[in-house]
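Format notes (please read before filing issues)

Several people have asked whether sequences and structure tokens are stored in separate files. They are not. Every record keeps both together, in the order shown below: the sequence lines, then the token lines. Line labels are part of the format and must not be stripped during preprocessing.
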Amino acid sequence: MRNDVMDDMDWIPVEIDNDEQLTLLSAVCQVVEVVKNSHNDPRIYEAAARPIAYIKDLLCLTEKQVVAYAIVMDMYYDNQISTFDIARYLDVTPLKAMTFRADLEELCRRNYLVENFDEDATDKSYSVTKEAIASLQQDCAICYRNSTVESAEDWFSALNKIVSARCNRRIDYDTLCMRVDDLIKQNDKLPMIKRWKSKEGRLSTEEKMLFFWVCCMVVCSGYETMVPDNFRKLYGDLAVYRTQRKALALGTNGLIKNGLLRIARSGEQRTKDSYELTPWVVNVMLGELELETAISSTQDIIDHTSITAKQLYYNEKEKVAIDQLAALLQPDRFDEVRNELVNQGFRKGFACLFHGAPGTGKTETVLQLARATGRNLMQVNISDIKSMWVGESEKNIKAIFTRYRRLVEESEVAPILLFNEADAIIGKRLENVQRSVDKMENSMQNIILEEIEKLDGILIATTNLTCNMDPAFERRFLYKIEFEKPTVQVKSAIWQTMLAGLSDEDAAVLASKYDFSGGQIENIARKSVVSKIITGEDFTLNSLIGHCDTEAMDKYGSNRRRIGF
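Then the structure lines:
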């Protein structure tokens, strides 16, 4: 080892052949000739300018990273390359060699090196990867360690490898953070990552790593709740672990404050020192994974970003009412109206009823309202509520509203609670009931009426029938919008939207001849597409009329006179 007080001017640059046809291997050899025993003299960058530039352009590295790369590649046979080895290679002090630490970390990021992690070691050591040797021989760069993935499942598969490396002490905490950040940045187009971005800015690095650690345990290992011991291996510093544990217990941790983690529940009771992901994380952020957990099974959450935009057509009266409701549900406007209602002593919840004939767009309107106003949907299947066991249906109803209240609390923008095809629960209550089933029906309705009274959010119910609706429900729905069969003009527009290329004249003929709803027109359009796939022939007016006649027969019977609409 040379003495650090020696004059660097005693080093004379090695002359290299600047006429040689360069490859990655030959360029590395030339850099090595100049750099070895150079005392890391600044003149090495001038002396080896040509091969350094070649490697820099090919591998997209900085000049200093190129030097680090050449050094470790020249020691590829050593599985324990440390900064001390680099110090000896350059003939400098170990402290000077440590200036290459960031460059070595970047080479790890690029998968040219892998770190040999040992918590008890005073210095890090590295090994050259097989991919780096292959790229040297093939004269090409290699991909980053964390490549772009196609799905949330693949993303968590990649994350699980990183977490496993940390669990098995193959990487340190800083490397864990670096690799997780890379995995996020390189896959920022995934819907899951886009949803994560809305929360990320409010969290510390320690909280972010804890969140993805917990997510990985849930997704890849089947955990539903976590205790602090489960993430003891995450942090290298025991003090950091204790700080995070204390913040969780006090509820001051950013994950709890921002609705990403919560104290685990046992029924309705809180379980001390045990934590779980919130419904927003399980059902919204990780929704496409369809996790089978106790949290996810409680509700069917539709993320507003997953709803496909769809052009809907309404009669004039409906359009005015729906536009007004859409304006009200815009987040800023909604909060303003709610606050004013509270100031004047009114209820702040909004219950709406969409009623009308089947196929007139009631459910699709709810979906498009959710998409347009940035609100997720908690959709309730009425058939799933009713249980064969007397007393269970009432518990199911209560649980739905309890879960919805939690979801409102945990969401920046209040979601919409959708009771689709709610005919069975808003009918007139029975009098002088004797049967237990009838008593259960009345009890369910009373619970719903009570919950609507104290609703803090948005409930929309859809129904095909209103003639039998209980007056108590009618009073509680602030907005009641009737969806009528479309007019001839509206039907013409729907026909042309569903079937690109349909002329105005043909659309008018179909709209006048058939009194179909939008849903029925969509059925016919789908049949036409299927027919074209099978026969290879595009639709004609006659073929569409044939499909229309079939649709009418399917609905009314071939020899039955059409009644009603």
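For reference, the curators noted about this record: Residues 1-8, 266-270, 294-299, 556-565 have pLDDT under 50 and may be disordered. The first helix runs from residue 24 to 35.
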